[in-house]
Each structure stands twice: as C-alpha cells, then as structure tokens.
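Example 3.
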Amino acid sequence: MSEHPLLSVRDLKVDFPTRRGTLKAIDGISFDIARGEILGVVGESGAGKSLTGSAIIGLLEPPGRISGGEVRLKGDRIDNLPAKAMRHIRGKRIGMIFQDPLTSLNPLFTIGEQIVETIMAHLPVSEREARERAVHLLDEVGIPAASQRLGAYPHQFSGGMRQRVVIALALCAEPELVIADEPTTALDVSVQAQIIRLLKRICRDHGASVMLITHDMGVIAETCDRVAVMYSGRIAEIGPVADVVRAPRHPYTIGLMGAIPTLDATEDRLTQIPGSMPRLDAIPSGCAFNPRCAHVFARCRQERPEPIDVGSSKVACWLAEEDGSRTIVDKKKADQLS
Amino acid sequence: MLAFTIRRLLQAILVMLVVALIAFTLFRYVGDPVNQMVGVETSAEEREALRERLGLNAPVMVQFARFIGHAALFDFGTSYQFKQPVADMIGKRLPATLELSLVSALLALLVGIPMGVYTGLNRDSALSKFFLSVSLIGISLPTFLIGILLIFVFSVNLQWLPSFGRGEVVQIGWWSTGLLTTSGLKALVLPAITLGLFQMTLIMRLVRAEMLEVIRTDYIKFARARGLPDRIVHFRHALKNTLVPVITIAGLQLGTIIAFAIITETVFQWPGMGLLFLQAVQNVDIPIMAAYLMLIAFLFVVINLIVDILYFLVDPRLRAERAVH
C-alpha cells in the first residue's frame, strides 16, 4: 500500500452536457499528492480549479459529470463509488473547505451542533465525547474560550473566526486529505495570512495532505510544496514551487509570474497576458493557450502538447520539448532558467 | 424577546381598535339600526324611546367607547333576526369552524410539507411531476367545485361519507366537538379536504421552491462535503431553512382558512360561523356581521403574533443579540 501516493488523479475529465453540445470543463488532467504534501492549484477563474476539487470529493453539481479518467485514494478508486460509500469518504478521509466562510455554515444551528453532528457521523463516539472533541478542535484553531462558544451561532462570529470554525469542521474526523477551495478569498486581507498559516500548521499537526486551490501566487509560494498551474481545464505546468515560481517553463506560467506586481518594478503598468481564457465552447485546437502565446508556432495550433518531464517539473508545451532549438524570448526569465 | 412581544401586543391592540372602528361604523351607519329592529307600524315616539334606550342619541365618541367596552366583554348586542345575544350564537358556532379549520390546516401542513420536500429533492421524478400536475388542479379549481365533486364521488356514488352536517357532537363545557365520535369524524373528512386542498398545494409549491433554493446554498454543499447522511442534510439542514417563509404563509393561510370557511361551510351545510355570517348578510343582521368582523380580525392578529414569535424560535439571527467578534 505504501507505494501508492495518497491521492492519484489520472486523465480526469469532467463534462457538462448542454443543449448545444458537451462542454469539456476539465480535459484530461493527471497529478499526485503525496502524504503530508501541500499541492497548490492555481489558475484564472474558470480554469477548472474548483471543479477538480468537487470532482475528487464527488460533489459535482449536475449536469456536470466525470466522463473519464480515475481518482485513487491510497490506490483505491473513489470516482466510481456508490453514493453511500462516497459519503463515508467525504469528511472522514477527504475534508473540504469552501471559499466563503460566511455562507458555509448553516445559520440556524450552533457551531457546536454542526461540529458534533459531523464528528458523530464519522466516529463511533458518544455525544459527550464528541463535544469534548469539538472544544479541543476549536481551541486548536484558535477560537478563544472555545467551550463557551459551542452554543454560539455562526452570525455571532466574524469572517476570520468563521473560517477557523470551517477548518475545525473539515478536520474533525481526521481526514487524510483536505481540499481547500480558495479558503481566504472572501476574507479580509489582514486575516488571510493568519488563516493560511493556521491551515498549514493544523494540517501538518494532523498529518493531512492539502490541495490548496487559489489564484494567489503569493500564497502558493509561501505555503505549498508543489504547484499545478491550470489553464482551460488542463494542467499547463506542475512541479515543485521553487522551480515553477523561479523558473517557469510554460509561457502561461511565465505570464502569470510576470503579472505579479513587485515593489521594485520600474514599469508604470502591470504586465499582463493579452486576451482572455477561451470559453469552454470555443477551446482552440492544439494547445489551448496558443491564441495568447507570444511564442506560438505551427505545431501549437495542430497538436495538443502532453505534459513532459522537464527537470523536476512537468510542462505541457511544445517549447519545452524543443527546448534546444528554441529559446524563450523573455530575457529575464531566460536568465533565470539557466 | 419580551420587549418585542410587548411591542407586538401594543400594535395588535391598535389594529383591533381600527377594526372596531370599522365594525362600529358598519353597525351605526349602514342603515338605521332602529329601522332594522322595529316594524313598519311602530310610531315615531316608540322609535325615539328605543333610540334613547339603545344609546343612539349619545355623542358618536361615547357610542364608540361604549361599543369597544362591550366588545371587550364579548357583548355584541342582539341579533336582529334571531333576537338572541350575538356572542352566544357565535360561541355555539365557533367550535365547528375552528375544528374544521384546524384539521384542514393540519392536513395541508402534514401532506403539503413532505410533498414539497420530495418534489424539491427529486425534481425530475415521475411522482414529482404527478404531484405538480395535481397541485395545479388544487390551485385552479374553485373550492365549491371541489366540494361538490367530492360530494358527488364519495357521498352520492360511493356513499362512504356524509354529504352535509357535522355528525354527532360531544359537549365539553361550552365547546362542542365532533372529533370524538365516528360520525363526527366521518362528517369532517370531505369538508376538511375541500377547505385544505388549496392550502396544501400552496404549501407544497412553496416548500418545493424554497427547497430548490436552499439545496443550492454553500452550507448545504458544505454539509454534504462533511459527509453527513442525506437524511440529516435534507431534513435537518435544508428543511429548517425553508421554514421561515413557510411559517409566514401557513400562518396567514390559517387565518384565511378560518375566514373563508364560509364557502365550504355553505356547500356542506356545516353549522359553523361562516354559515351564520352568510345568513346574517342575507338578512342585513348587522350585529352578527360586526361581531364576525371583530372575531376574524382578532384571530388574524393572534396568528400573526404567534408567527412572529415562531420566527424567533426558528431563526437565531433575529434574536436581538450583538455579534461577538
């Protein structure tokens, strides 16, 4: 068993059948998450980041469906499990944290009720033990006077505190993997860093791996071990954070890094990638990024590049394959590459 | 909570005063009360004596105050037609109407809510589509037609259930109940269905719409992501969030059921207040009409008060506590 990665996604495809044809929202992505690892998933809105998370945990909203590939948790397939078996994986083995803590908690139940019911749904404990555990968890995520706050309703907490409660809820049955879908996007900037640090610490303490979905490269750089860059439902580049951030190989990743403002930048304007991500019903043939790519050549428009090993990363770009013959024009990045 | 209740009580009293003013105006100015009471051959002196005895010569404000004072003691005068105290007549009829209305409301809730939950969760199933089609009939057919259809099928053709009246009743103090005898229960079935069908379909559609809304929310998605069983997600987390609008509508509808039991009571010759009211209208029996108006207003006010208090119990956000950060 131990040779299996904790989570293994192979050639995962998610379709949305519509009246005007099938939209391929996720089109064949593969990646692994090792035990204790934090994988960042980054990309623009609509790149399929959140859908990947929903597909793994089996909560795709109809008509969305997994149309191909497989998801394995410690070697066992989980993408085709019956609903009841999948329920025992959700919460128990894979926890999930959503974007908006203000709406993630049911407003009509106390946080104690919500934590206790979750613990009791997964662990064979009495209600009293579940309550003790709930207090312990709230304490761990930094809710002051936890035992008195069990009877409080979500609206009595601030956004940051609610996200702490959500983290406690996601971790209360000791899952092996936590999927955090933009856990700080809806929060005040001043508490974002706190929550990310908390998430990282608590997952390490509980030995849980994390799939951190975000569009914030800063968060990725600080938090993650590896990062996957998604574009149009495909993975453009995946590799160790240090390599991808400092030496991006895919022109899209390069553009993404270039778009991060720095304090010592001399330009007045932020650099940006021209154009926008294609709509799902108009993904170009070949590489999905080709209309926006500065280095596009004929092959990009005809054949879709598969991820190939480049150093410790995988990059889905024909440039990477023909690295010897073509050089990336961006001088600054080229320097970093060597 | 207490301050809120007191505030609502004061508002309720204000509403009742306004209704009393309308009832009083009705009583005093729709025709001359004296003309309604006496015959054609009564002399002018006798009329004047009666006018004096009834206090109709006093200033309007005094009369109004007197009317309210009497109304507060459930004294609404004497029926022109029956020459009996109106309060007694209504007291005799009230149990019949309240029993019919409450049974209809219970029927509407107990059938309507589960049907709404089912159709909300299984929107594409054949049974849901069947329920929705049937509910269209419930919403669009007029009550009297449903009543007559039910009588035709179950009383005339099948002869299972009586077509009119209340059956045998048992007297408990001043309250006469038909719920304790077989014939009373049998007599209740058709009118209760007739009266409750519209509300039932309304509640079903409301719960369905609310469920569709609620199951798309983040907290339901998060509840699923926590691996809670469907039963808990649907009936604990989702259903409770649909309750606030359902309580509002159900409360208002209960008032409507009581007020509009008139038609059903007429179709089934149910000896309730509605039937009494209809007779009063035909005979311009103003005291009964005024008393009925006051009573229905009172019931609406009480129901609204209960609904407001139920909100508090269901939704913690309404309880006046300050958020703690």
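The first strand of chain A starts at residue 7 and ends at 18. The CA atoms of residues 16 and 63 of chain A lie 6 Å apart.
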